[in-house]
Amino acid sequence: MRPFVKASCFLSGLFLYLSVAQETIVAADPVAGKQVAVTAKSTSDKAGKQPWRYFLFLPEGYDESAEEKWPLLLYLHGSSLRGNDLKKTKRYGPPSFVEKRPGFPFLTVSPQLPSGAWPASGLTSLLDELLATYPVDPERVYLSGVSLGAMGAWTFAAAAPDRFAALIPICAHGPAGSAAALTDMPIWAFHGAKDYIVPIGPHRKLIEAIKGRGGNARLTVYPEGDHGSVIAPTYKNPELIQWILEQKREQPQTALDKSE
Questions:
Q1: Angstrom distances, CA of residue 139 to CA of 162, 177, 252
Q2: Can you list the pairs that 237-246 forms with residues at least 24 positions away whose Cβ atoms lie under 8 Å?
Q3: Burial of residue 202, with CB atoms counted within 10 A of its CB: 0-12 exposed, 13-18 middle, 19 or more buried
Q4: Does 6-246 carry CATH code 3.40.50.1820?
Q5: pTM for the complete prediction?
Q6: I want to staple 78 with a disulfide (CB 3.0 to 4.6 A). Which of 147, 162, 238, 243 is the partner?
Q7: Model pLDDT, residue 25
Q8: C-alpha 131: how far from its chain's center?
Q9: Mind listing the pLDDT tens digit for each residue in 178-230?
């Protein structure tokens, strides 16, 4: 077990919460199917004083002492979950369900953004730290996000396309000019047709721009979906999980159906 400053445990399924010094990355003894809350050394604010905190999910079969490398899913939440209360991030997305799905096959990291938008520079520092700290396969790093987190994921992927094996954005588009940087990245995006918070139009245009350049991109539209209702069914989709696992940065990517 890595050293830690103090830990407080409470009953919430199998959830274990750690309060740690900002200078030290800490994780509990790895137990399959558990989440731990970690204070990272990476910083997200301009002054460089406030570290991101994140949930770390350890997949079933995880063994820190083994030489096995694990696929990493980096998940970015939406604007309503920003702040300094990490428990808020369990409202939706992977932090809300992984404890009930110990077979979820990814080492999953879900940081909390204190304020503002997701900065690519801060995410780069966080990813560097994760790769240096945990047994992650660098060829199987996957990026996903919801709403503001999807915008951040699009932006981060376009800024560092060589770092990810696949991008999975949900109910938000990225910068219109990012298509050129993403033609070599497998992308499976999701959006609700009745999303009036982030309209689907710009998302369609970006996917079409990537496909028009020969990229491997797909947009799945939920005909009755709104801004929030598409999140849970997306992450429960076994076809999506299987597709993600098939993507590897150094290998030919699995082709997607070009139609929606």
A1: 10, 26, 12
A2: 240/168, 240/188, 241/105, 243/166, 243/188, 244/71, 244/73, 244/106, 244/142, 244/166, 244/168, 245/71, 245/105
A3: middle
A4: yes
A5: 0.83
A6: 147
A7: 36
A8: 14
A9: 999 999 999 999 999 999 999 999 999 999 999 999 999 999 999 999 999 99
- Find where tokens 């721009």 sit: 209
In the block, which residue shows the tokens 């590897």? 248
DSSP 3-state of 231: helix
- In DSSP terms, 73 is beta-bridged to 108, 142
Q: Are strands 6-8 and 107-112 parallel, antiparallel or unpaired?
A: unpaired
Distances (CA, A) of 3 to 18, 45, 169: 12, 26, 36
Q: What is the pLDDT of residue 34?
A: 75
- Residue identified by tokens 């990493």 is 72
Looking at residue 109, what is its pLDDT?
A: 96
Contact 62, 104 (CB under 8 A): no
Phi, psi of 133 (to 5 degrees): -105, -35
Using the structure block, give the residue that is written with the tokens 């240096």.
132
Query: What is d(CA 16, CA 147) in angstroms, rounded to the nearest whole number?
Result: 27
Q: Are 168 and 143 in contact (CB under 8 A)?
A: yes
Q: In the chain, which residues have pLDDT < 50?
A: 1-29, 47, 252-253, 255, 257-260
